[in-house]
Design a protein that fits this description.
Blueprint lengths: L19 H12 L6 E2 H8 L4 H11 L8 E2 L10 H11 L3 E2 L11 E2 L1 H4 L12
Parallel strand pairs: 1-2
Antiparallel strand pairs: 3-4
Helix pairs in contact: 1-2, 1-3, 2-3
């Protein structure tokens, strides 16, 4: 990950260390309860730094260590290339979905963002 893609104040790290910003993003992903989701922008807002692209970059590089399927696009479209794996997790956790209409090209459901989105309520205490 280039330093240019990280928020300011995150200097060089040892080669084997997780960048501090990435660690904070992954910590937030770990907090999201089963059956709920946060958008990339929600995570950046929660942290008060970076933006959706920076969060997406962290999730692409390091997200495999956390419940990555709970950090999503704002439009509820399943992560391209990982749709079926994510869908399995959503169904297992009872995440609210909107079934695809007959006209939908891929016939995959979308997340019901109105019902599935988590605002971090009740767990913000002690979060840095």
């Amino acid at each position: 990950m280039s330093q240019e893609s990280l928020p300011s104040g995150t200097g060089p790290e040892p080669a084997d260390a997780l960048p501090a910003y990435a660690e904070r993003v992954l910590d937030v992903a770990d907090l999201i309860p089963p059956g709920r989701v946060m958008t990339y922008g929600d995570v950046a807002e929660w942290l008060g730094e970076g933006g959706p692209r920076q969060v997406g970059r962290v999730m692409a590089l390091y997200g495999g260590a956390v419940p990555w399927w709970r950090v999503v696009r704002a439009d509820g479209v399943l992560l391209p290339g990982h749709e079926l794996r994510a869908l399995g997790h959503y169904r297992e956790e009872g995440t609210p979905l909107k079934e695809a209409g007959r006209a939908a090209e891929d016939h995959l459901p979308r997340l019901d963002m109105r019902r599935a989105r988590w605002d971090g309520g009740g767990r913000a205490e002690g979060h840095t």
